[in-house]
Write a structure and sequence with these properties.
Length: 108
Amino acid sequence: MRRRSSPTSCARDGTRVFFIQQGDEPATAHKLKWLAHISGGTYFRYNPQTQERAEMLAAVSAFAARGEEAVKAKGGEAATVLLEHLKQVPMPIIGEDERVMASRSSDS
């Protein structure tokens, strides 16, 4: 049986998810930031006027292959931005046994 992935399961499994937005749609940014926050991932906006796509993807690839130290060694603007975002603290994970279900009360 295939296991469903969710933002909290990514965080629980130690999987870092990178949400990279090209464009400036506020509703999309809000959703991606929320997903990054609850998953322990990272959100950042890609600005084609100021950042090179290849540099940004190289920084993410360095992190995926060899971790934070590789990003530090790589250097550059994209590496600096990525390292800043990696410092963000994710929301705590709520396990299945810790969830509280609200009950409906009937007034009839």
